[in-house]
Amino acid sequence: MKKKNIISIVIIAVLVVIAAILIGNNRYLSTLRGEAADFTVYDTASITKLFFADKSGNQVVLQRNGDAWTVNNEFNANQNMVNEMLYTLNRMRIKMPVSIKKSDNIVTRMSSTNTKVEVYQMMPRINLFNKVKLFYHEKRTKVFYIGDVTQDNQGTYVLKEGGEKVYIVHLHGFRGFISSRFTAKPIDWRDHTIFNEKMANIESVKLEINDDPANGFIIKENGRYQYSMNRLNGEPLAFDTLRVLNLMSSFNNVRFEAFLNDVEPARRDSIINSPFQQRLTLTTKDGKSSSVTTYTMRTNADMFLYSEEDLENYDDMIKDPDHKYALLSDGNEFVLIQDFVFGKLLKPADYYSKDYHEEIPQVFYQELETVESR
Fold it and tell me: Which of 173, 273, 324, 364 has a CA-to-CA distance to 181 between 20 and 30 Å?
């Protein structure tokens, strides 16, 4: 056989192998794309409800009501978390199927640790060529189970209801796993907003200070962006207009840090029955009032490298400088708030006086040399 014929045969064989690989790979990718539809929601605007349930007995229903969402038809949902979930459902993709050898072990693990996910969407009963869509109704479109994470923490196991094949899913451009986003605990989805009012909607703001009643005050609107300010004993206060305007414009998206539902009832009762620090009440022009009552939070001794004896001997060390306990206006929600957020809202009446001058502490280098390091 001539050398030229041998070369031709080799080239043809290589081309055949490449073509077979490309065809097989295309079929593989097409199969994955088709199976991805079992988990991915391309039209998240059509989602009306999401249901999550885990093996610990936790269940949550997220329901769309116009532009807002509710948790178990009772509480407002955290819109940022809902948006993140919709993004996850839209961008979640299959990274690869799990091998048959490993699949049985993963399915066994998922049988004891998983979160069931149900997606409900508004779907047409009649759909002609994806052009004419008639008679929309709510339909459960997807049911799957979210498992734990892969060993490299870069993927999450997922299994379709009734399916036998386990897949690893991920988000493009995101390094990490997504299983934690599918929480079935209702408290994780609840909104943390305390105040969310524009200045134009506020009728009055009242601050009570338990250990300094003379520094409590009430601010009322007398006209468009025109205010009066009195101490709680009725004495008018000549106030700095800019500071009052800054306060009245600070009630947009004021949030607490965390729910404290895990605090023991006896300790909770002890805290809320102790003398409060401040009580801030906001009343809107439609007559609705919201308030937050703050309480001292004890310093974590270990965190600040103090001993318990230090805290008992020095009163100024007892208070956590960054956090407070708080009770919301309905009297049922016991939460944790940050001084970073509320410090500017809880300043006393004297701060707003035209005669007020804030003292700036001065530290000299000789004093710094005497400070012992811990």
Answer: 324
Tokens read off for 273:
């029955």
Amino acid in the structure at residue 289: S
Going by C-alpha positions, the residue among 191, 187, 183, 186 that lies closest to residue 76 is 191
336 within 8 A of 256, measured Cβ to Cβ: yes
Averaged over 51-58, what is the pLDDT? Answer: 95
pLDDT of 183 higher than 70: yes
Long-range Cβ contact pairs of 231-240 (< 8 A, separation 24 or more): 231/349, 232/206, 232/208, 237/349, 237/352, 237/353, 238/353, 238/354, 238/355, 239/352, 239/353, 239/354, 240/352, 240/353, 240/354, 240/356
- The Cα–Cα gap between 363 and 358 comes to 16
Please give the structure tokens belonging to residue 30: 């097409």
**Its pTM surpasses 0.85:** no
DSSP 319: B
pLDDT in tens, 263-287: 899 999 999 999 999 999 999 999 9
Token readout for 144 is: 């799957």
Instruction: Give the C-alpha separation, 171 to 181, whole Å.
Output: 12
Which candidate, 162, 163, 36, places its Cα nearest to that of 89?
36
Nearest residue to 193 via CA among 134, 273, 239, 257:
257
